[in-house]
Structures are given as C-alpha cells and as structure tokens.
Fold each of these.
Amino acid sequence: MVLEKTHIEKHLIPILEAVSDPEIPVLSVLDLGVIREAVEEEGVVKIKLTPTYSGCPAMDVISDDLRKAFSEIGKNAVVELILSPAWSTDWISEAGLKKMEAYGIARPLSGTHDKAVLLGNEKLVKCPQCGSRNTHLVSQFGSTACKALFQCEDCHEPFDYFKCLK
Amino acid sequence: MSNEQLYNYILGIADNNLILGQRLGELCGHGPNLETDIALTNIALDLFGQTRSYYQYAATLSENHKTEDDVAFLRTEREYKNALLVEQPNTHFGYVIARQFLFDVFHYLFVEQLQQSKDETLSAIAKKAIKEVSYHKRFSGDWVKRLGDGTSESHKKIQEAVHDLWPYTQELFEITKTDTLAIDEGVGVNLSELKSKYQEEVAEVFKEATLTIPENPFFQKGGKQGIHSEHMGYLLADLQYMQRTYPNMNW
C-alpha cells in the first residue's frame, strides 16, 4: 500500500489534466498531487488516488469524474483510494500553486510559518487580491476542510488560505 | 487475532469518531457564530472521513459481507462501543468545547501510537488522521483558554462543563479484552501508556485557562461494553433514521 513516488504513464496525462478538483476548479487532479499512480494494463486504466483530507467529499466526485473522462474515450478506469503515504500540501505543483493564487486562494506556507499564522502570532499570509501581508486569521476552519479563512486589513477582502498539511 | 476480534477492535476506535461527529453535526447551522459553526462541522467531517476508512476496513473483515453503511447505521445500541464521553449532549457551548478538548487530547495521543501498529491499514489511517486531529486539538484548546480565562460568565460555564464531563475521561484509558489481544499482537495501542501524558497536557491547558479539575469524582464507564447513557438512544434515532426508514438508501 505504500507508494513513495508517483507513477503516471505519459499518454494518460492529457486526460488526467482535464479532470479538476470540484472545489477548486482551476486545479487539475495532477496539480493537486492526488494521483499517485495511473497505468494502463490490457485496456483498463488503473488509478490510485489519495485523499487530501479523510472526509473530503471531493474525492467521490473526483473518482466519478475520472471514470467518466476515461469512458468518454472508450476506456474503463478503475479507481482505488489509497491512504498511505498521506497526502501533503508539498505535493501541489508549482503551477498549481500559481493557479490557486490567481483564483483567490492564498498558498500554503511552510509548516512552522503555518502554525504561527494559524495561532495568530505572525502576519505572513499574502492577500491574493492586493498582495499585502497585513492580513489576519478570521477562522482556522474555512469553507472546506483544507482551508482557513483570512481577511486583508488593507483591501479588507476576506479570502481563503490553503492550510499547510505535512 | 481473528477477523472477528480485529473487527471489534476497529469498532472500538471508530465508534468514538462516529458518535462525536454526529454530536457535532447537530450544531450545523446552530453554532454560536459563523466561524465556530464552520469549524465544528469541519471537525465532524474529518471524524466521519476517518471513521469511514475504519468502517470500510472493518466491513472487509465482517461475516455476511457487510458494507460500511451496515456497520455505521444498522447496529443496536449495545453494539456501539464508543466511550460515554463522546455521546454526552451539546448542553451549551462550554460543554461542546470541553467535550471536544477532553477527547482531542486523547485522540491525538491515540493516533500518534496507532501509526506504529503492525496492521498496515490501521497505521495508514492513523498517519492521515494525526494531521487532522492536530488541528482539532489546537482549536478546542484555544477555546478552552478563551472561555476559561474570559469573562466570569464564560469561566463559570466552561468550569461547569469540565466538572460534569471529567468523570467520563477515565474510561478512555480502560483496557478491554479486545484491547489486550490487539496490544499483545502489536496491532493495538496500549492505552495505559497514554494516561500520564494526557493528564499532563490537560493540566497545562487548564492552568492557563484558570480551570480546576474536580477532586475525587466518581468515574463513569460502560460505553466500551455497549452500556450507554440515556442520551445514546436519542442520538441513534437521529443517526439511523434514514437507513432504517429507507433500507439500503444511497446518496
């Protein structure tokens, strides 16, 4: 059950890239780093998917979307959910982080900085609207399990911050 | 360990999550403000997610090809093995926070050890869960301090909750026959080893929160044997209604 690295066959990438996270539609499942393995064996595409959070309802939707995307090109896909190793925000690609910021969600900080901002000790999260770091935590839990709610004190816009998970 | 024994061991872990998640779910749309409402339901979602992984695993070990839904929804009260603490009602926000904190500190220490389980699936679930539980503990610990060291009214209310809920904390460390089997095989967590760390951590937060632990309480137990408090039947009626009324319904 342990997979340290991803193993994704090249010819499957274009199809996987078209499947997005239902909560953050600008991110593909590849950007998010939840696909740990995708191989085609005897006409069947076998995918290993790891959840971001245990209770993330997006996982069921993503599994359905993956099966649908492959069935549209006449292929059967089998999606297996794997838990180990546990997903980390480090697995979000740099391109994914940029798309996330452009979409209005602040990117996760490193572990120690993340803890400091979530305890309200330091101002490090950059407002995705105006770029100011003069921001404060409104709630450790946001609109989905993976996000916390922040507000910018300069432009006053509330925004989501993607929590660091390691 | 036979499949049946492992099945029972898993339920002993997972039922705590299910029942506490159900209690928190009752607050959806009823939290004292929007942020705490969202936080508490987010915590419930994490607990349900973890418990789903446990039940899915348990279902594969069960006789008669049970599904995760059968395990979650179609047992009688005596077949649920959760500790009494998690079924206690949401009397007021002080109770919600005290119950959460008293469970979170235990839950964190528990999954921390479960990561070392020789059972690969349990270890994988624990490695996932610990990241989530660390957020829960931070949230509830912060609120214990805020209420305890807040106004005289908030202090009174959280102290009242601590007084009433503390007698349910010893049961978390009670070792059942199933636990002993699981510990002997390196699958389970030795609960007695968590106790001193638990008391230390709770005492540290309570000190900052200016709260006191009740002296010489009578400790309640029974949940792990399926003997629950009077609150459990009502909780299960809510929890099981859909599956009992529309058998085999799916989302």
Note: Residues 3-245 of chain B form a domain with the Ferritin fold (CATH 1.20.1260.10).
Amino acid sequence: MVTLTLDGIKISVPDGTSVLDAARQCDISIPTLCHHPKLTPHGGCRLCIVEIKGMFRPVTSCTTPVSEGMEVATKSPALEKLRRTIIELILSDHPNDCMICEMAGDCTLQELAYFYGIRENRFEGERRIYAKKDGNPLIERDMEKCILCNKCVRVCDEIQGVKAIDVAYRGFKSKVCPPYERDLNCEFCGQCIRVCPTGALTGKNWALKGRQKDIKGIDTICPYCGCGCSLTLNVRKNEIVRVTSKEDTINEGWLCPKGTFGYHFVSSPDRLTKPLIRIAPKNSNKLQVTSYKLKNRKDFKDSSPLPTGQAGVTRPSSLFREASWDEAFDLIAKKFKGIKEKHGPDAIAGLSSARCTNEENYLFQKFIRAAVGTNNVDHCARL
Amino acid sequence: MLEISTDNELKLNDILNRYTAEEGNIISLLQDTQDVFGYIPEKSVGWFSKKLDIPESRFYGVITFYAQFHMHPRGRNLITACCGTACHVRGSDRLINSIQTELKLPEGKETTEDGEYTLEKVACVGACSIAPVVIINKKVFGEMTINRLMKELKGKKVEE
Amino acid sequence: MGTGGMAAGGSEVMEAFNREISEAGIEASVEKFCSMHKVGCRGLCAKDVLVDVIVGGKKTTYQYTKPGMVSRIVKEHLIKGEPVADWMVGEDYYSFHDKQTKVVLSDCGNIDPEKIESYFAVGGYEAAKKVLTSLSPEQTIDIIKKSGLRGRGGAGFSTGTKWEICRNTKAAQKYIICNADEGDPGAFMDRSVIEGNPHAVIEGMIIGAYSIGATKGYVYIRAEYPLAVERLRMALAQARGKNWLGKNILRSGLDFDIKIKLGAGAFVCGEETALIASIEGQRGMPRAKPPFPVHSGLWGKPTVINNVETLANIPYIIRKGADWFASFGTEKSKGTKVFALTGKVKNTGLIEVPMGMPLKEIVYDIGGGTNKGRTLKAVQTGGPSGGCIPSELIDINVDFESLAKVGSIVGSGGMVVLDNTDCMVNIAKFFLEFTQAESCGKCVPCRVGTKRLLEILSRITQGKGKEGDIELLEDLSHDIKASSLCGLGQTAPNPVLSTIRYFRNEYEAHIKESRCPAAVCKDLIEYSILADFCKGCGACMRVCSSKAITGEKKKPHSIAADVCVKCGACYDVWVFKIW
C-alpha cells in the first residue's frame, strides 16, 4: 500500500494505482475525456492534469502511478486555466451543432463546456471537414465531431481484439478510420459507440428517435444467447430506440452486434405474439415464405437499417387461427401422446436452442428424456 | 493499381523473408516495399496483412504517420527541396515557388499531371552549410539559385 | 567528404585526382610515395571541396576544388613541388579552425571513415579495450559521471546518471539505443560525426552496453542521410569482423551487437518514447513519462537512449580521463559542444567549441561575421524548440544555463545566424509551420494549439493581425508549454515567445501598420523596379516564370503588380544591388 495526499486528504491505495483512480476513490472529481477504466491510459486529452509537489510541470493523473508521500493538488487556478484553454481548443475544432446532435445531453464535451462556462471561444480557425460519410449499415461515424481521445481505437484493440480502426495521418490531420478510409467493415459490436465521449460515433438507427431526457432505461437480460448479458433498453413512447448496457454488470457493459443492434424484432409486425393453430387441411398448404435475403450491404443503404415487414411469413387467417396458451399446450400434449402410443417414444426428437438459458435447456432435455421417454435430444449449438 | 501477380508476389515474398514476422518490422517491410515499387501499393498492404496476421489498419496508421511513405506512384523525376531553417533563411521558398510555377503544379499537388515530376519538400537534409539545397534525382545541389535551377529543369525537359 | 562535399562535387574531384595521378603516375610514384584518402566532413562546408595535399610532411589545403583544377595541382604541386598559391585556403580557413577545440570532431576529417584501420591508427577502440579488460561497469559509470558529460541531444541530462539508473534496474534484457534521428532543421552534427567517424559512435555504444548491462543495441537513424547509413553499415560489418561486436567481445564475456533502424520521416521520433514506439514498428507517438525508458523502454525493458554526439564523446573521455574532459567548459556545462553554424554568416559549417564560449566569438571570429555588410539581427539556437538571441545579447556565453536564462536552449546545436533581411515574425511562423506539421496529434494542446498559434502568426504576416493577438499568442504559448505531453509540444511555442520577447516591435509593425520591416512577408510587400537604376539587362525578365516583367532591352523594365506572384526570383538575380 502507498499513502499519498490528495488535496489535503490522506489516502492509502495499492501500489500501481494511478493518481486519477486514487482521487476517484476519495470522491475528488477530475475531468477527463480520454480515460476509460478498462482501457490502458492514453494521456492525450490532458484534462486530468494535476500538480504534484516536486514536479516542475503538471502531469496527467491517468498515467502517473502513485508513490509514497506524494502530495497532489487536483485543483488550482493555474490548472483550471489550462483545462479551460484545452476545452476551448477542442471546441475550436468541433462543429458547434449541439442543437441537432444525437448525443446532446449525454456528451462529455458538452458537459465540460457547460461547467467551464464556455460560450465565447478565444480561438477560431480551420476545422476538419470530412465530406465522405461511412456507408456501413450500423455505425454512424461523424469524424468532424471526433476529439481523437483514441478510446474507440483502444476498445477495438484491447477489448474486442479486432483492430478494425486506427488513427491515421498525424497532427491536426489525424483521423480515426478503417484502413484506406474504406467503409467500416468489422464485427459491428458497437463497443466504440459505447466509449465515444462525443457524438462522433452513434448508431445509425438511433437517428431522430428522441433525446436522452425522454428515454426511460429498462434493465433486462439479452434473449439472444445463453451468456445472459445485461441490457438496458432505452425506451421512448413504448419503442426501443437504442440498447445500452451498464458497466457494473456481468458483461461489464460490453455487448455483441446482436445485443447492440438487433432489437427491431421486438416491435416487428411479423413477430408472433400469440399461439396459432392450423385450421386448413395439411394438403392445402398455401403457406408462402418470402424470406429476405441479404444480398449485399448496398441493400441497406437507402432503407432503414434492419428492414421489418419485408421479411417473414404471410399467414392468411384462412390457414391459422389464434389460440390461448392453454389450448395450444393441450393440443401439443395430445399430439405427442398420440405419436408416442402409435410409433413409440423414439419417433419423437427434441432440438433446443442456444437462446435458452442453461436452466431452460436442462428442463427441456429432462422433459424429452423423462416425460417423452427418448434420448433423441440435441441442441442447435452442436450442429 | 498494382495487382498481385506471380511476379509481384515473388517480390513481396522476398521482402517478407528478410525479416522475422513480428510487428516491430512493419516499418522496415514498408520501406523495402517502397524501394521496390516506388510507392506502397494498397494491395501489397493487404497481402502483408494476411501473411503476418497484422490488421491493415495498423499498416495504414503507420504509412500515413511517416512522411517518407507514399501511397501513390511518384513522378519519374524527383525534385526534393529542403525546407530546413538554413535553407529557409537563404530563400528556399522562392525556389519552391519558381519550381511550382515552372512545372505548373496544381495547388496542393506534388506530382505533375503527366507523371513526369514530383516536387517534395523535406524538413532538412542536413546540408545546411550549402543552403539552399535542392536534390534532383538523388543529385545534391548546394547553394542553389533560381537561374541554376531553371537551367537544370529545362535541361531535363530537353533530354526527353 | 561528407554529404556537403559530395554535393559540391567531391566524388568528381576524387576521380579526377585518381585519373591525373595514374596518368602522371610513373613520375609521381617513383619519386614520392603517393596515397589518397577520403575523409569525413571537415566542418567548413562552405568552402567545399577541400583537398589536402601533403608533400614531405607539409600540408597544403585547397578550397573550392573543381575537377578542372586537379590537373594543375597534380602537375605543379605533386610533381614539381610548387603549391598552387591561387587556390590555397586563406586566413579565414585557419581562423575558423584556430578558435575551436575539437574532441568529438578531432578525428573527423583526418581519418578514412570507411576503414577501421584508420580509426585504430588514432587510438580507436583503445577505450573499449581499457573498459572491457580493466574496469568494472561501476567504475566506468563513475568516470562518465565525473566528467560531467550531459546529453547532447537537447535536454542535457547527465549521461553518467542515466547509465547508473539503468545499471541499477534489474532486468534480464536491456537495450542501448543511439538516437541519430537528427530532425532539427538546421542541425547536422550527428550526420557529420557518423559520416566522418562512425567507429567512435560504435565504441561509445560498446562502452555504454558494458556499463548498463545491455546485449543489444540499435542505431535509429534518418533515412534522409543515405551516406551516413552506408558508412555506418560498413563500420558495423568491420567491427563485427574484428570481434568488436558479437559474442564474447575481447574474451571479456560481453555479448553485444548493433542493428540499424531507419527512421521514416517524423521529427517527433527524436523524442525517446516516440523513438521506441517507432522501433517497435508503431506510429511514432510519445507516451507519458514516468515510467522513464531507463526503467521501462524498448519492449518494456530498461533502455538507455543517447544521442550520437554524446556517444562519440565517450571513447575520448575514457582514453584521456574525466578530468581532461571536465577541464573544458563551465561549472555546470562540461566539455565541448558541436554546433552547426549556418544562416547569414560567412563561414558556415560545423564547429566544436568549449561550452561557455561567448556567442560573439562564435559568430565573428569563427563564423567571420555577417555577409554582404548586413547587420546581425539575432542568432537562433536550438532549432524549433529553441529561441532567438538578439544581437544586443551577443556577449552571452553559450552553455546550457546561460542560454536558458535568455529564453533559448542549446538543444541539438543548431545555430542559425539572422541578419536585417530576416523577419522575426516570419521566422517564428516558419518554426511553427514545422512543429505543427510534425506534431503527432496525440495531445490536444499540441495538435490544436500549435495549429491556432500558426493561424494567428499567419494572419499577422498577412497584415490581418488584430489588436490583442500578441497577448493571445503569449497566453496560448504558455498554456501549450505547460500542458503538452512531450518535449515537442512543451517547446514548440519557444520561437514565438522569444521573438515576441525581443522583437515585439516587429509584431506591432505587422499588426498596426501592416508593414514588414524586413520586407519578407509576401502579402505586405510589392516588387517594383527602380527605373533610375535599371540598366535593362533583362536578367530579371528571364527568370520570371509568371511573365510579369516586361521591357525593352537596355531600357528600364517594369513589373506588372497584378501578374506578379511575388516569388522573388527577380530579386535574387538582380545584379546591381544597392543595399
């Protein structure tokens, strides 16, 4: 353990802790833009600078490890002046369009400008202008709003291991982009969106779905696989407008592309919400399946990212009728019993889903083995 | 656009074999590639990326960071104007201006449209005592004047 | 024969000598033993090509030698024994050298850099031998510490202390890196040292490796220095051949070898953490210190990074002793320092002087003063990280502390002399253009801050400066210095601050009167021909690429202001200069 003094407060923290983390442990807030607790420290935004006794210039608290007897000042008129200049400099190269920005109200840069009361900017000059927009279907990359905190690059490398993007060029012309500035073509996990402190990275399907203040967060578990990631559905007027995840969850706030972007099935008109029982005879099967095939990404460009309504099954009411769950279960039980009596239990097989939880899968195989009486049970993940 | 033909693949293989397959050698690989092709073809980066299992984004970041790397073919004649301090105070700007006017280089472009000439500015070639310095096709000219420069350029044009 | 000499036609002159001597061969080689050497840079590059002819132990030096002159030199001097007085160097050649004290450069220009035997002949590798056979690493470090040697790359950190910290860091693998990424525009001593005496650098690295316990070394050198790279490659191969590199050097048990890594054109890679990133094959982005490279450097292992000139000093310190080295220089700045004296001065070239020599002696006695009767305005030292010393302060001593006091630095040793035709706002803008283009972009103050500084400077030089711009420049400069990540950003505003400090009036003239006192800033000047002086020779008309100059032969010409692009070509060829 190392003991140090932060703004006059004595604190003991484990060796190797950064000054920033030590400060957060004693509830001293230090502004940052490029720091993320799960990523290696960057030291690029320079906002977390602190004064340490014995060092002749301010140092970044995110990159400086604590040492015994260290005396740190996190606030001083000189530091506040430097921080103010830095924010002004960032804003001088940032579009001043908070009024139409998707992230307004949820943007770290906007918050800093608010707390430092920056309305007039002493610095004006050239801004980076990027005409080309990324044509990928899911992630909106508005690089004019990028402040080069490097979080997206680090998360893509260190957490996701994909390295789809990196900083290219240098100095004022630095730009985060995929190789050769092609359109983004990655796993689309959306981790980069999650860590972006500004509106540079957003979901394409978030656009014009509502402001943060109108959004209600509803915690749930992701239905896609057995991992059981925690989701927070961002709901406005009973519609999911985006999906996020909290950092103190089993999945530490990270999600996969399905969890992040695959929520449109919830309100899809094609979704079955009640059991259906066939009423037409079997041989008059006029069931038409028009499945939507993803030929190439271009199909996405002009329509909404994940098309609904186009895909699925046409089910004329002449083929099916709606039923209650009780009625449906009774029918299934009756049919199973009939097959078992006529052909024996091995005529029945069960295939369960990776989307089910372990408990559900356990119950399912138990049902097939004990109730039906066959070992014909398998799981889609094995295929 | 360079295609990865058998011939080019042999060249790339040859470069690859000079180094151990580790990320530390990216810059050396790229330097050798540029020596062979005169620039770094996009396809060669894809090729190295697959062979080394190093993502292309890493290569692109490195190529665009260092001034030495070029992503497009350069002119057949390379004029390098030194813009170091000593050359600056001895009038390198005027030399550069006159080259740009003489070669009719479009604003912000380095290479003439016919691909004959490339004018590049470098920070310092370390020959400050004979400033201003202009290097034409690897030949170093010290204490360059506009008169001499024009003669050299016009001489090049006549040769063709 | 360094890059400068090659450019001036060194190879051609050498060929000519070869030819002439072989033609006149019989006579020459019968009567006298005749041999030829090429040597590294002599320093006084302005007078290249320099040729020494030694007949009967008497050395005669010729300046500005051209291939056409060789025949006469061979016939009259070599054969008849009568030196060609017309082409011999004058007084200024000797005064240029007399005031200097050469340590690092002592053998440059005298030995053949492409032959290891030539280095052996002047005591080369004696120091490494002494260290490896009779001194412990600790004793070696003590000698270096006692000598007071400080890093010659810019920051001036004690070399001995750096080695000691690395020595005391426990690790299975350590590295020593020679920083030859000499990026400062206006400095070329590292290039000259490697071109002139590469083995001294290698020997310094061997001694360093032994002292800190490193087994691998790298030389990170700019690709823009092809000749230096070639000579270094040759030297490494020769050293390996003689077992000065490789396994079990001199049966001392030391394994050590050196690899060359070529830089790819990024000034920021002179910063040690960026240099490490570059050797690791990454973008050359600096990282925050601590941890310092001596604790965690290349591939996370303890690493010492020394500049070329620093390493080249080491063999001489070991051979001649710490006290000998410390006898040069001042209380806190020991030894000598190589400077690249360039700009508006008569004798440009590399000079080596004891630390603490008055600037005045450097500029006037060694440099020979300003050219063309112009007046000295300032001396810029330390390149883009340094500052300008105005002519009023010409009496100051050149050492780490004195220069820091007046707002400049020794830096890597660039020394650019400026005269009354240089605009100080333009100079500040020039350096900012450089640092801005070389900023890696990692941290905000440097990435955006230097851009804004440059924009303010640009509008001042265009006559669009505003009231309060000077104060804004000062304020922003201080903030950038205080909050930037690495040395590049922390020093980038120095040229702005020092020019404002000493030449505020020039800034004010640009802002308040839209006037450039030195007539440099393009937007504030206009070229015109003084009809009373124009002889109508047509010289200016011929060089005007935009065809703005018109006139009849032998009658005064004129410049059409609307066509003129102000390239200045006409001014440069103008033969009847009146000031």
Note: Residues 288-314 of chain A have pLDDT under 50 and may be disordered.
